[in-house]
Amino acid sequence: MINPNGYTYAHEHLHIDLSGFKNNLDCRLDQYQPICDEMRELVSKGVVNIVEVTNRYMGRNPQFLLNLMHDSGINIIASTGYYTDSFYPPKVRTSTAQQLAQTMIDEIETGIDGTELKAGIIAEIGTSEGVITPDEAKVFHAAALTHHATGLAISTHTSFSTMGLQQIDLLKQHGVPLDRVVIGHCDLKEQPDLIVQMIDRGVYVQFDTIGKNSYFPDQRRVAMLLTLAERGLLDRVMLSMDITRRSHLKANGGSGFSYLVDSFVPMLLAAGISHAQVEMMLRHNPNKFFATQGK
């Protein structure tokens, strides 16, 4: 359940382990004390919600998240789902969409891995770069079934900002109301017209890799947001950083979770985005989108 009294980071990871897949220990984000310290700092700056989109087979750790909430005061919205084809275990390939959906429904209604933590978002449901594989399409079907059973919203992963329109088509085909869908990672390519098309279809979009300047510079993210602001579309935009590595943490020399509010928001204000528009993207839009709606 979202806490409406502050800012929300719409797409983050607090415990994730892709180190085996990427053969890089840096991709195991699991250092409790530095992360807890950063969460306390965020709370002090008015960020009260983290949407934690690590799901099955990505290194999700529900007890770690429960401890963080207790020790730092941050509110965490946990996820259920399946990432992208490269990360699927054999069970995903051999299960039906209905079976996958039941697993997700159980994590929403009963709890994750035997803990009291229940998933509050179907995320991050992903597609591969430039293609949607048959098994990914099956997972999107399962996500739609889960949405219909629980009312929870769906947050997606696009690989390098590809296949967003196709994701929308899939979810629409399965009857998901598009105002309950947010398309992730829309800020890794210069594609304002495509983003406008997606918003016009009825979905929300995320600029959620803020600070990852090696992928795409923040100045160009600001420019795209200015374009959306000029068209009156920021009421469909949410912001986040998608921190996934140990090296992203302040304790390890990274910019840390507070970069978004400490550095990126001042960049937006300096470029002409208003304080009210910042409030819209970081507070009002997430409050509306992540609110649990009835079945």
From TrEMBL:
Keywords: Hydrolase, Metal-binding. The keyword Nuclease does not apply. It comes from the Bacteria. PROSITE patterns: PHOSPHOTRIESTERASE_2. Belongs to the metallo-dependent hydrolases superfamily. Phosphotriesterase family. This is Phosphotriesterase-related protein. It comes from Yersinia intermedia.
